[in-house]
Specification:
Length: 138
């Protein structure tokens, strides 16, 4: 495939051409990009099938074999379905829907006017919680 890399235009003899797109994200530098490919299906002189990946009119290596980040040359690249990078970019540019900050928290005042610290603390016991469920003796 390296001898035909760089050729432009569709090659003669393609039995089928399939268009596929992928999203890529570099796990090293975080760069993201999308690329569409024309995948040409061919048969050689012996009748064996092979495919050529064409991007921007040039034959390129398969993006599924060893993708490379064009930003940092790393080969640690995640391949995703098309549109993932675009949707992430759109989400980053949308205004966030963060609720406004809450106001100050006020301590409730007891009916007798005493604040929470001056009130007597009540310690709950299991019998207090079960009281509503107890049967009355008749």
């Amino acid at each position: 495939m390296s001898e035909i890399a760089g050729q432009t235009g569709l090659r003669a003899g393609a039995s089928a051409v399939v268009n596929e797109s992928y999203s890529f994200a570099c796990m090293r530098c975080g760069h993201g990009w999308e690329q569409s490919y024309e995948i040409e299906h061919h048969k050689d002189a012996a009748g064996h099938e092979f495919v050529l990946y064409v991007a921007d009119g040039k034959v390129v290596p398969s993006p599924l074999s060893k993708p490379e980040c064009h930003h940092c040359d790393s080969h640690v690249v995640r391949i995703m379905r098309p549109g993932r990078v675009a949707s992430a970019r759109d989400a980053a540019h949308r205004p966030s829907r963060v609720p406004p900050p809450a106001g100050p928290v006020e301590v409730p005042v007891a009916a007798d006017g005493a604040d929470g610290e001056e009130r007597e603390h009540h310690h709950w016991h299991l019998s207090d919680l079960l009281h509503p469920f107890q049967r009355k003796a008749s």
